[in-house]
Every structure is written in structure tokens, then in C-alpha cells.
Amino acid sequence: MTRIPKINVGLFGLGTVGGSVFQILKDHEHFIAEKIGYPIQITKICELDPKKKQQYELASSILTNKISDILDDPEISIVVELIGDKPIAKEIMLKALSLGKHVVTANKAILAHHGLELYSEAFKHEVDIYFEAAVAGSIPILRTLREGFVSDKIISVQGIINGTSNYILTKMAKEKADFKVALADAQKNGYAEADPTSDIEGIDAACKLSILATMAYGVFIPYDKIYRQGISEITPFDIEMAQKFGFSLKLLAISRKTNQEIDVRVHPTMIPATHLLAHVYGVLNAVMIEGEYMGPSVMMGKGAGGKPTATAVASDIIEIARNISRQVRGIPPLGFKAENIQKAKIKPIEEIESEYYLRFTAVDKPGVFAKIAHVLGHHEISIASVHQEGREEGHEVPIMVLTHRAKEKNVICALKEIDKLPTVAQKTLLIRIERS
Amino acid sequence: MTRIPKINVGLFGLGTVGGSVFQILKDHEHFIAEKIGYPIQITKICELDPKKKQQYELASSILTNKISDILDDPEISIVVELIGDKPIAKEIMLKALSLGKHVVTANKAILAHHGLELYSEAFKHEVDIYFEAAVAGSIPILRTLREGFVSDKIISVQGIINGTSNYILTKMAKEKADFKVALADAQKNGYAEADPTSDIEGIDAACKLSILATMAYGVFIPYDKIYRQGISEITPFDIEMAQKFGFSLKLLAISRKTNQEIDVRVHPTMIPATHLLAHVYGVLNAVMIEGEYMGPSVMMGKGAGGKPTATAVASDIIEIARNISRQVRGIPPLGFKAENIQKAKIKPIEEIESEYYLRFTAVDKPGVFAKIAHVLGHHEISIASVHQEGREEGHEVPIMVLTHRAKEKNVICALKEIDKLPTVAQKTLLIRIERS
Predict the structure, then answer these.
(1) 3-state secondary structure of B320
(2) Candidates A218, A293, A329; nearest CB to B24
(3) A76 to chain B, minimum CA–CA distance in Å?
(4) B301 min Cα distance to partner chain A (Å)
């Protein structure tokens, strides 16, 4: 066997995650070298923000403002992209792959939108692209789908993969806090951005689900095919109701394969208190995978933060380093042979069936519920239970209905009709229920 | 690249797991071939029991009674050993490795006792031995330690890794059933053997912990170095007390590294209701790993059963097949370079510190508790709270004490003294408390 030189890594982006990647590789340098037999070193870092550079003790020779200083360096075999969702990130990755460099990234947004292009480019140039850190921080769920679960056919993927929204829902549940209060608290504690749209509207979760489902089924599932409903319309009252009915309320990312169709969606979901994801609180992330032979399996851990996320990036770097040293290609990033990747057949949300929690807001007077029930019945939606909290004749009151399993398209039609009734004061809130 | 022939596997043992391995490889034959690019086939099965052979539709040419029919077949590159804890299993594995064949096994007992010999033999002959199925059935925790968590230093491993005892404790907690009643129920439902010793005395869990800790720290931790306490002395009353104090009671396998010493033990443990393992009920298995950078992470799933366990065996076979096709050795079975494996420095149980739940059984008369408290104080054990259920002057009553953090050796000395007091009627029950 030829002698193994040290593995040189070029890093783009010295933000929270990038900084921690630099730190863990330095801190654990000897430990890693002892484990795998040779050292791994970051030899160049491209970062434009002078403030970020000052946070670490860095030799000036290691720092650069020029992309080409990394991409044109023949000694660098692994490019780590931690810039975030900017077009330049995609350009850098495509260029690195075309130059025969392996890529490690945490860029969920770019993978969710342009993954197919990147995977194809990696395949074409016989290099690898790994992205464990793009989903659920420290939890090695992608590697597990690719290797640990390789022998089994995946039936479903369900995940609590956005820590911000789970923190908000936990706070709303435990303290009966309003959504806005819980959001402000999350922002104060650094768990939510100033503009929280991506987290609370399920955009971040949908990007991650795109990657998870792509890995699970070996077909590319782009972001824009994923149905989304956020949590901003949820009230503490809905959460209390959920508990009353024996459920926990979570923003769930769900993917399920039936026949050749894949159902992918992110929405607030009521799950039974016995569900394996029911007790995942706060900023924790958890993903439940169900396989034909293995049954359900859950992985849970920190979904964000520099240090936890850096462990995933560093493990990807080590995997590639091991392959370089053995002079082989890695396992294809999706587990499936790359030339087979195709676009998926997605089941439209209208085609799914589910149980539903419906919160109607109606004027409290005799006969109002009869009208709602009539419309539901007309659309073949069968009622499992009804609950009306308080009574105030002539005022708006919430009426909660749990349905039996019904067709989503029927529910959509029924709600359109119901929301037009003169006695119905607000748009009806719909929350889907998942039993297992 | 040379053309890849199909991969031939020889299987020893057609019991529950062996049968399911045969089934999954047959069921998913095309699926696996599509994923990895070539087929994997079991071409010979060695099984002595004629009844087991009849359960599957097997060509007679595939079946044999002779070990040599597999070991001497040059076409077979992977040997799967699923015989169980018998000396012949070890002999078969050593022989297979020495002949340059890769080995997949689920044999926790043999690995926990003779792992070092097997790993060394694999290293010597440049072949691989994988054993994902030996710990926690369908949960790919070993692969995760080896690859997903490769970049991080592991601080602790905690697991509920014996489904039988967790089923029994769950039943005792939910139905206030006595240990014997819960055990009989587990036996009736096929979750416990006729002789349940290995499960209820923590032997099975200690074998698995030996493997987990060996993987986590890269040093061989043999079974006989692991402290064990079983669950047969636990009463529903202790579980109720635990709940009263805010704890869940679990049979936990624990390993922790401090400085260069490793603490490894299996015992009933009280963990806070907020602990990530507190809600793992029934026959489920779960392992929590804490890393320096990544924080705590949990994997949970089915720990036993033919089908779930078979997915782990099959994934190991596929990993080896992928390596054969790429003409490389796999990642060393322990993640660490095999030549570095040494015996570990184990911290004796007397050296640990913990909080304790102590259930004294004393004759209820004035001054009895004062004597117990005096002995505890004398040994520097500080009391956090005391609880006495009921009062019956002159009769034996249980007195429960929660201690602050204390040295185990002091606790052992104190209990020796206390159990000799004339007013103390039974051996005191000790349960350790783990906070995180």
C-alpha cells in the first residue's frame, strides 16, 4: 500500500458551525489520527467577515478571501462548504466537484432545491458529496439510512426536525403561552431568528424532509413538491384539547411510501401520547424510521448548535479521508447507486387520507353545529367526537371535532363550504392526526 | 474495475434470526442488488436440527450438516454465525477468519468473553468481523459509534438493552404487579426464557455493555470486569417510591470514561422523569451516547425478534459485500485501528460515587431510624430525604432513604453495619440514581 499523506481540507465559512468544525478537528487531532491512522488538517479557510476571523487563533497564512485559493490548491482534496443558503455556495460546490474534490456540506436549502444537480456532478467526476450535518445536527440519521438500514425497505420517515418550532410548541404546552409569547421567548434565548418565517412556517423542516425522503427512497424529492403548514395559527387551547384527547401536538415532517407513490408533508400533527416521538421536548430533534423488517426505530439528539453540528461535518470528513486513504470511492451519498436517481412520484396532498382535528369558530346559537355536521356528512366525513368549550349564546365559540379517517380532498371541500356559512366567524383550523 | 461476481454467503444456524436473515436476503434480493450493484446470496446453510430446516422452502443442495461444507468452500467469502453461545461457534469464527473469510455474528456472549481473540484473528488475516446484531437488534448503534460518532470523544454510554427486564419493570410499574407475576407474564408472552437468569440478573445486558463500551473507547472491556445487579429484588413498592420521588426505574447498562478509567456496570437505576431514557417502555431497547461535542444522543428500536435482528445481520453482510466489490478492507470493527486494542483500565465499583435509594426493612419502634442515620453519618453519607410508609409499632416496615452523592465504598461499609443491627430485619436494598 502506498504511503498515506495527511489529508488537507479547505473550509468555506467560519460561522458558528465552521468555527466549531475548525475547533473539533484541532482539539481531536491526535485522537482522530490515532483512530484512522493519519492526520486531517484544515489548511485553508475562506471567510470574508473580518470579525469572524478574529474569534479563533488562526495563522494568517491559513486565511483567505479568495475562493480560488482553495479550489485551485491541488493539495486540498476535501472542500467543506458552510456558507449557508447563497447562490455562491452552490457554485463553489459544483466547481469543487468538477475539479475532482470531495465535498462536505450542511446546506439543506441548496440540497433540497438543487440536490439532483450536485449528486449528478459528483457521480460524473467520481467524487463524493456528504451532508450529514444538513439534517438534525448531531444525529447521524443520513448515514444510518445509507448504511445501518441498508438491508431494509423504508416504509415511513417521521421527524421533529425543527428545534425552534418544537421549543415554541413545548413552551405553549407547558406554560399555556400564546404563540407570540413563546416565539418572543425563543428569540430572546437565541433559538429563533429575528425573521422566524423559515422555522415556524415549516420551510426549514421541509428542506430537511426533502433530504431525508430522498435518502430513504433513493429518488430525488425536491423541496417544492412538499406540502407545508406552519404552526403560527396554533393556540394553547388547541394543545390543551390535544392533551384532552390523549395526543401530543408536534410540527411533524412525514414521508410515507405506498406502492410507488411517496407522500411528503410538514404540518402540525396530533400524535398519541404513546407515540415514540410524543416525549421529544424543547429544541431536541428526533427522527423515526419505520422499515418493513425492523419495525420503528428512533434517533434523537441535538439538532442545532455549532458543536453538535460540527461532529456531523467532521465525521463526514473522516469518512471521505478513510476512502481517500484506501483509494476507493465512498458509498454513494444516497445509498442507492447514483445513476439510478430519478425524480419521485409524489402523492398530492389532496390524495391522502387522515383523521382530523377541526376547530370551527361559530356563533353559539341553536342549530349551528347541525349545519356544520350536515356539510361534513355530505362530504363523507364521519365524526368521531365533538367538544364545545363553554357556552355563550350569540358569541363566537370554538367547536372541536375529531373525525374518523377521511379523504383530504373531501375535507378541503367541506371546509370551503363551512367557512362560507354566515354563522362561521373564522377560517377553520385543521390539524392532521397520525396514529403511528 | 474488474467485474464483480455475486457475493456468496454461508450461514450457520437456522433459528429465529438465521431464518429471518435467509428471508430478508431472499425477499429483498433485487432491491439490494439494485442498491449495491450486484446480488448477495446465501449458498449454503449448516443446521443440525431437521425441524428448523422444514420451516423454509430450501433446495436440499443448500443444506448441510457439515461445518466444512461452508468453511472449505472457496466460493464463500462471508460466513454468518448465528448458532448462539456454544464453544463451537467460536471455533467456527476463528477458523473462518484464519481462512480469509469475513465473519458476521450476533454472538454477544462470545464477543463479550473472547472478543479480543476474534478481533486479533481478523486483523491478522486482513478480514473483517462485524456484529451489529449482537447489541440492541435493529438499532445500528455499533455502526453509529464506529462511523457516525467517529469524530467525537465518547463520555458515556447508557442503555436499556435487555427487553425482557424492561418489559417486566414496565408491567410492575403500570399494574403494580409483583416481580414473579410480571416474569410469568413475560414468559407466557414469549419475552422471557424458561430459565430467565441471563435476562433478569443483567448477564445479557452486561454482555452487550461489554461490546458497546469496547466500541465506544476502543479498548477491550471483557464481560467479567462488569459489575452486575439484577432486578429480582425490586418490588412494585420501590417503583412507586421512585415515581413519588420523580424517577423512573430501569435496568440500565452504564459506562463512563473519566481520565483514563472506565466505569462499567449494569444495575437497576432510578433516572429522572426528564431523562431521555425515562419513557422507554416494554420490550423496546434504547441507547444514549454522550459525546464531548455532540451532547447526548439516543437511538431506540426493537432489541430482539427474528426480523428486526435480521436487518442488522443483513446490513453487515452488505457492508462487507461493498468492501469486497471495492477490493478494500472495511473500517476496523471497533472503529479504532485494530493493532491498538488493549485491555481497559476498569474502575472498580467500590471507587464510584453516586446518589442512592436505600430501602431498609426495620422493626418499627422509637430510635430505630436514629441508629441507621447514625451509621450513615459515620460513613459520610448524607441523607437527602427519608420516607416511611405506614406505621406498625413492633412490626417490620420499610424505610426509604435518598442520599446525596456518596462514595460507594462508604455505602457498602455502612450497609454491612446496618444490616447487622438487631432491629434491621432484612438485607437492605440499594438502587443507584443517575441524573443525566
Answers:
(1) helix
(2) A293
(3) 20
(4) 4
Under the banding of pLDDT at 50, 70 and 90, the label for residue B1 is very low
Cβ pair B147:A140 closer than 8 A: yes
- What is the second-level CATH architecture of the domain A141-302? 2-Layer Sandwich (3.30)
Residue A6 contacts residue A13 (beta carbons within 8 Å): no
Q: What is the pLDDT, as a whole number, of residue B238?
A: 97
A375 has pLDDT over 90 = yes
Residues of A carrying an active site annotation: 208
Residues forming beta bridges with residue B263, ordered by sequence position: B256
pLDDT above 90 coverage of chain B, percent: 85
The C-alpha atoms of residue B396 and residue B412 are separated, in whole angstroms, by 22
First-to-final CA distance of chain B: 51
Over chain A, what is the mean pLDDT?
Answer: 94
As a whole number of angstroms, the distance between CA B280 and CA B288 comes to 11
Binned at pLDDT 50, 70 and 90, residue B335 comes out as confident
Which of B20, B78, B104, B311 is most worth mutating to test chain A (most A CB atoms within 10 A of its CB)? B311
Is A329 in contact with B326 (Cβ distance < 8 A)? yes
Q: What is the DSSP letter of A144?
A: I
Determine the residue of chain B that is closest to A325 in CA distance. B328
The per-residue pLDDT for range A378-402, each reduced to its tens digit, is 999 999 999 987 777 778 999 999 9
**Eight-class DSSP state of B390:** S
Residue A68 zone, left/alpha/beta (φ > 0; ψ -120 to 50; rest): alpha
Contacts of A315 in chain B (CB under 8 A): 147-152
CA gyration radius, chain B: 24
**Active-site residue flag, B343:** no
Q: Per-residue pLDDT for A2 more than 60? A: no
Contact B294 A317 (CB under 8 A): no
Q: Provide the shortest C-alpha distance from residue A285 to chain B (in Å).
A: 10
Give pLDDT, residue A1.
45
Q: Nearest CB to A310: which of B24, B34, B293?
A: B293
Q: Where are the alpha helices (DSSP H) in A189-281?
A: 197-200, 203-217, 236-244
3 state SS of B114? helix
- The confidence score (pLDDT) of residue A395 equals 86
What was the pLDDT predicted at A62? 93
Find the largest Cα–Cα distance for chain B.
86
The ranges of chain A annotated as CATH 3.40.50.720 are 7-138+306-340
Tell whether the model's pLDDT for residue A339 goes beyond 70: no
Instruction: Name the residue with cell 492526520.
Output: A39
Residue B315 pLDDT > 50, yes or no?
yes
Residue with cell 485491555: B343
Look-up of cell digits 485494530? B338
CATH 3.30.70.260 is right for the domain spanning B349-433: yes
- Chain B contacts of A296, Cβ < 8 Å? 301-302
- The domain covering A7-138+306-340 belongs, at the CATH homologous superfamily level, to NAD(P)-binding Rossmann-like Domain (3.40.50.720)
Per-residue pLDDT tens for B123-168?
Answer: 999 999 999 999 999 999 999 999 999 999 999 999 999 999 999 9
Contact A235, B52 (CB under 8 A): no
Residue B140, classed as helix, strand or coil, is coil
Higher pLDDT among residues B364 and B400, named by residue: B400
Global ipTM: 0.94
